[in-house]
Hints:
The chain is built from six helices and two strands; from the N terminus they run ααααββαα. By secondary structure, it is an all-alpha fold. The longest helix has 24 residues, at 129-152.
Amino acid sequence: MYEYSRKLIDQFLKEGNSKDKHIYFRFVAIWIAFNHWLVVKFQKDSDGELLKEFYKGYADYFKKEVNLNANLKESIKKLSEKTPVHDERPTHRNDTKKIDTLDDLKQVFGVIYLIRCNLMHGSKRFDASRDDELVNLSHNILNKLFTKLIGEEYV
């Protein structure tokens, strides 16, 4: 991996794990680290293209990790119980995502990405307990998986 990219990813991971920061900030920081890794790794221009490459290349890895890591699986189960998640972006109203299979990378990250989009472009409310739970669970899943992945692999 490029040295600058690794430093940037490490800094955002550190911010994303800082317990004195609000969970929304921590989730966004982890997402930025993950997104930067995707860009460096896959060299694609859009989030959709990046995620498609991620799904193709890491579906088996994800399935294995979910079935080996009880904490990760439990977080995904809790998130699945909160689905469907509705797309709150103005141009995507009425779209929903849900998790039917806990070790399906596309389903799980489809929901996490939608939560990220709602937070950044939609109508997440900073006082809504369900929103807080969705962001917290998404942070936990992304953080557990990406921290392990980035520790095992260099772009």
